[in-house]
Amino acid sequence: MATERDRMRKDIAMRASDAGPLARRLNALAVYQRPFEQPDFEFGEWVDQPGRGKWYRLSRVGRDFLEYCNDNGWVQGFEWVDWKATPQAQRLMDDHSAVAEANPLDLSRLITVLLRQDRLDEGYLGAAYDSGLVTAIVRRASTLLTDLPAEGDETDWPTWWGMDHAERRAVDAKFRKPD
Fold first, then answer.
1. How far apart are CA 3 and CA 51, in angstroms?
2. Res. 157: pLDDT tops 70
3. Cα–Cα distance between 45 and 12 in angstroms, integer?
């Protein structure tokens, strides 16, 4: 019997088979929309273990999400602590409806903050899931994936990080809805 994890891996392979690098990365997030939106889904739980203390244990799908974010280029090296303090970051983290307008760079920055902060603050990622932020991120990735041009998008992540502001704006324009 196929597990949810097996179905997600199959979805990733099928949806990304002919996709460009950015589409593959968006797809790696988008496949989590279905399980994360299930009312009975548990991202993780607090465990009080004698000798170790209290810690947050991710569910199997939660661990897979963490792994996919790392393996698919969503966690980037940048001054995430400084960015987290910016008004833009605060708006995205506090107002989940703002995530619905985020571009791929915004999603990458959010994910980087969540995963890096979780290393310093046990359960931070779980709290972000409970607040709805993680689900908003995967929902936005799904929308961006759907909105990719029919010919695909060959924007590769290392290239993205090497772009100047004008080049990034041109790529972002592909994902913005007309006013």
1. 33
2. no
3. 26
State the Cα–Cα distance between residues 29 and 106, nearest whole angstrom.
14
- In the three-class reduction of DSSP (H, G, I as helix; E, B as strand; rest coil), residue 127 is classed as helix
Task: Indicate the burial class of 102 (C-beta count within 10 angstroms; 0-12, 13-18, 19 or more).
Answer: buried
Q: How many residues does the chain have?
A: 179
CA distance readout (Å), 3 to 7, 60, 64, 67, 169 = 6, 11, 13, 18, 40
User: In this structure, are residues 153 and 20 in contact, taking their beta carbons and an 8 Å threshold?
Assistant: yes
Helix, coil or strand: residue 112: helix
Signed CA dihedral, 92, 145, 23, 36: sign only? positive
3-class DSSP state of 131: helix
Max CA separation in the chain (angstroms): 57
Report angle CA 35, 40, 43 to the nearest 5 degrees: 60
Report residue 60: phi and psi, to 5°.
-60, -45
pTM across the whole model: 0.76
- Could you give the CA distance from residue 136 to residue 36 in angstroms, rounded to a whole number? 10
pLDDT, average across residues 121-135: 97
